[in-house]
Amino acid sequence: MLLLTCPCCGAEADETELQPGGAAHLTRVGPGAPDEAFESYLFHRENPRGVHIERWRHAHGCGKWFHAARCTRTLEVFGTYPAQITAPPQPIRDAIAAKHPGWAWKEGK
Amino acid sequence: MPKKRYSAFALLREAARYHSGWARAWASPQPKPRYDVVIVGAGGHGLATAYYLGKNHGITNVAVIEKGWLGGGNTGRNTTIIRSNYLQDPSAAIYEKARALYETLSQELNMNVMFSPRGVIMLAQTEHELRGYRRTAHANALQGVSTEFIGPERVKELVPIISLDGPRYPVLGGLWQARGGTARHDAVAWGYARACSAMGMDIIQNCEVTGIRARGGQVAGVDTTRGAIDCGRLGLVVAGHSGVLAGMAGFRLPIESVALQALVSEPIKPCMDVVVMANTVHGYMSQSDKGEMVIGGGADGYNSYTQRGSFHHVEETVRALIETFPIISRLKMLRQWGGIVDMTGDRSPIISKTPLGGCFINCGWGTGGFKAIPGSGWAMAEMMAKGEPGPLAAAFGLERFREGRFIDESVAAGVAH
Ligand SMILES: Cc1cc2nc3c(=O)[nH]c(=O)nc-3n(C[C@H](O)[C@H](O)[C@H](O)COP(=O)(O)OP(=O)(O)OC[C@H]3O[C@@H](n4cnc5c(N)ncnc54)[C@H](O)[C@@H]3O)c2cc1C
Ligand SMILES: [Zn+2]
């Protein structure tokens, strides 16, 4: 069972308490953007077999959204961080890089 | 490889000589340096694509490359439900084509795929579902797919072990497709593999594709764990791993991969001779020829490549099914497993050209592609042979997401199936 620590209330929550929210840090496009940009924002996903940065909600707890960094192949969790941050913070990147040398954060997906 | 026909006579002959004369069902060749067509993924869809390339289009210089063993992906992990009672016209066309091909597949492949058109009921357990299925029944009538909306009494007649009156999920009726059913999943993969091998195609197992080579926007070949292989055309048919292969080819897909689970009980005496799907409670059940109750459950809500799902989904599924089938409450579960399914936003598959020339993709079947194998292979082969999608595939192109032409089956297929 997947366990994530909610960075808002500090509770260690199992997945029955959490609501998955899909890939994180997508660049939202606005009115006037070309169809390709909307297609990319709405539908295209990296869907990696490996490190995945995603959104979760502590649905049956404090109710807040947050971010988690996880490996989709091993289910290893590298850490969680608040929803207000727009890219993975350095300690999370370091934790990932320690297990996945060569992994680098790509902006603007 | 010369193929010996399977028949009652062959069985008798072999019975008389200690089964010493059976030939291998398919060859295990070394990869050649080049093929006209390379298919990645020896699941049902990849093998069926190769088969119809040979059968319908005369293209036999084909390799099917598989990183594990053939049929070891979702094709060998599913609950084998076959039906074609979808809502949208393009879906009805391809799923009904597939269902119709299943009817004669054993004869076609000379392999008993144990297609059993025992009938499939989708239970209506909420007012919303009741209306939804009535609508589907009308849509199916217009599409020429024979289904029928039936009342609770008829459901009870067909499924004596069902409990109609709740308390939480009373059975209000059901969508009945008498010509739906099940088939033996492994045999479908094996049958196509054997037929492909007999046409001279190479099925190369234990060979993982690790890269896709392109020259001037055209596909040139693949890198594999057993060396580089050149090809004229490339078909990616890898279900849950589609995102990984698309990454190698340099494009992204509207797909996310999640784990979907199934489980089987200990074998019991025959008690249910139809397939029952209870979509409100995310559960469905049929009885195998061995007597096991085959149960399918819900998919995980988060990306995963682990081929095992979360335990709480099993609990939820079983808890809900026990209310509908009290008889199963004391059954022991024997085995549980998971597969990685490729989910699209509109719950419909992708059969499409890709941004890379000569590279085609067939994926997005998600929780429900076993039933589609023959039709999907037929449509994919046509597209790969002609370079353009034919009538069955045309609506399933990747561009539908940009153009907003979804084939929305999230209502008809709101649950794993
Ligand atoms: C638990 C469960 C229950 C289901 N129940 C039903 C049902 O009742 N009815 C129904 O219609 N459908 C059902 N499905 C869905 C169905 O199983 C799939 O849609 C279908 O089997 C997909 O077939 P495929 O050939 O596309 O994929 P697969 O059978 O998964 O084949 C893809 C192959 O590609 C290979 N591959 C991946 N990456 C590489 C690489 N890099 N190099 C080489 N090879 C590679 C894999 O090893 C795999 O063998 C269910 C699925 C699951 C998991
Ligand atoms: Zn919290």
From TrEMBL, chain A:
Q: Which Gene3D superfamilies match?
A: Folate-binding superfamily
Superkingdom to which the source organism belongs:
Bacteria
InterPro entries under this entry? SoxD (IPR006279), SoxD_sf (IPR038561)
Q: What is its EC number?
A: 1.5.3.1
Q: Do you know which Pfam families this protein is assigned to?
A: SoxD
Q: Which GO terms describe its biological process?
A: tetrahydrofolate metabolic process
Keywords for this entry? Oxidoreductase
Q: What is this protein's record name?
A: Sarcosine oxidase subunit delta
UniProtKB/TrEMBL annotation, chain B:
**Catalytic EC class:** oxidoreductase
Question: Which biological process annotations from GO are given for this protein?
Answer: tetrahydrofolate metabolic process
Cited InterPro entries: FAD-dep_OxRdtase, FAD/NAD-bd_sf, Rhodanese-like_dom, SoxB
**UniProt entry tagged with the keyword Oxidoreductase:** yes
- Subcellular localization, per the record? Cytoplasm
Q: Which Pfam families match?
A: DAO (PF01266)
Cellular component, GO annotation: cytoplasm
Gene Ontology MF annotations: nucleotide binding; sarcosine oxidase activity
Question: Which cofactor(s) does the record list?
Answer: FMN; FAD
Give the reactions, separated by semicolons, that this protein catalyses.
Answer: sarcosine + O2 + H2O = formaldehyde + glycine + H2O2; sarcosine + (6S)-5,6,7,8-tetrahydrofolate + O2 = (6R)-5,10-methylene-5,6,7,8-tetrahydrofolate + glycine + H2O2
Arranged from A to Z, the UniProt key words for this protein are: Cytoplasm, FAD, Flavoprotein, FMN, Nucleotide-binding, Oxidoreductase
Matches recorded under PROSITE patterns: RHODANESE_3
EC number of the protein: 1.5.3.24
**What residues does the Rhodanese domain cover?**
37-81
Q: Which family does it belong to?
A: Belongs to the SoxB family.
Family annotation (PANTHER family)? FAD-DEPENDENT OXIDOREDUCTASE DOMAIN-CONTAINING PROTEIN 1, SARCOSINE DEHYDROGENASE-RELATED
Q: What is this protein called?
A: Sarcosine oxidase subunit beta
**Species this chain originates from:** Actibacterium naphthalenivorans
